[in-house]
UniProtKB/TrEMBL annotation:
Organism whose genome encodes this protein: Lentzea xinjiangensis
Protein name according to UniProt: Pimeloyl-ACP methyl ester carboxylesterase
Entries under InterPro entries matching the protein: AB_hydrolase_1, AB_hydrolase_fold, AB_hydrolase_sf
One GO cellular component term noted in the UniProt record for this chain: membrane
Alphabetical list of PANTHER family matching this protein: AB HYDROLASE SUPERFAMILY PROTEIN YCLE (PTHR43798:SF31), MONOACYLGLYCEROL LIPASE (PTHR43798)
Keywords: Hydrolase
A GO MF term: hydrolase activity
Length: 230
């Protein structure tokens, strides 16, 4: 899987992935908040590793970064994996919520309040204690400056419909059955936007199937790769 790149969700890091052999960078904010800047970081990493074309995947925020990368360098991508993410921009109320969290984390730092604000929407009702403990740890160990930066960058991300409609590579769209943030109907709209998409629902999972049901996630990924020859 040395050509597989997976980008993590907010407010987590590379530890959310349990996919041996995949390149899973922990994203960092720098400069003016813009997901295009993170996409540039990923492209620089691909150059460093000598990877010309990759199978690029992202969960939630990672999906937004993947879309930003496709906008900048579509020739670097031979396939796409979108996990519990969406291609549309945020509604005004969602933007306000993101900016409010960014302001609060700068004032108060990362703490239990951030776990309480995010974890209920990240995990499904059947998530194991192990999954809950893992997500809690990752949230608490993020840098406040990154959390604020990510929220401000996501708040101003553009609609990516125009980009995805032109992508001519195989795509896999996965969504947790109980995802509250980007539910199955949102995933269905994303799949319709893509030219060559396979869309699947992962039962008994919320917004983070790779954490909640890692074995099932890997199995779906491998089956799709075999089907499309990637």
């Amino acid at each position: 899987m040395d050509d597989l790149v997976l980008l993590h969700a907010f407010p987590l890091d590379a530890r959310m992935w349990d996919v041996p052999g995949a390149l899973t960078p922990s994203l960092r904010g720098s400069g003016e908040p813009d997901l295009g800047a993170v996409a540039s970081q990923v492209l620089a990493l691909l150059d460093e590793r000598g990877l010309d074309r990759v199978l690029l995947g992202g969960c939630s925020m990672g999906g937004y970064v993947a879309m930003a990368l496709v906008r900048r360098a579509p020739e670097r991508v031979k396939g796409l994996i979108f996990v519990d993410t969406k291609h549309t921009a945020d509604a005004p109320e969602a933007v306000e919520t993101r900016l409010a969290m960014a302001d609060r984390v700068e004032r108060e730092g990362v703490g239990e309040w951030l776990v309480e604000a995010t974890l209920p929407n990240l995990l499904g009702p059947g998530a194991s204690d192990t999954a809950r403990a893992s997500v809690r740890t990752m949230v608490l160990e993020q840098r406040a400056e990154d959390v604020a930066w990510w929220q401000r960058a996501m708040a101003k991300r553009p609609d990516s419909t125009d980009v995805l409609e032109t992508v001519d590579v195989p795509s896999l769209v996965l969504v947790g059955e109980h995802d509250k943030i980007t539910p199955p109907d949102v995933a269905a709209k994303l799949a319709v936007t893509l030219r060559h998409a396979t869309s699947e629902r992962i039962e008994d999972a919320g917004h983070l199937p790779p954490v909640e049901r890692p074995d099932e996630f890997r199995a779906r990924l491998e089956r799709w790769r075999t089907q499309v020859g990637l």
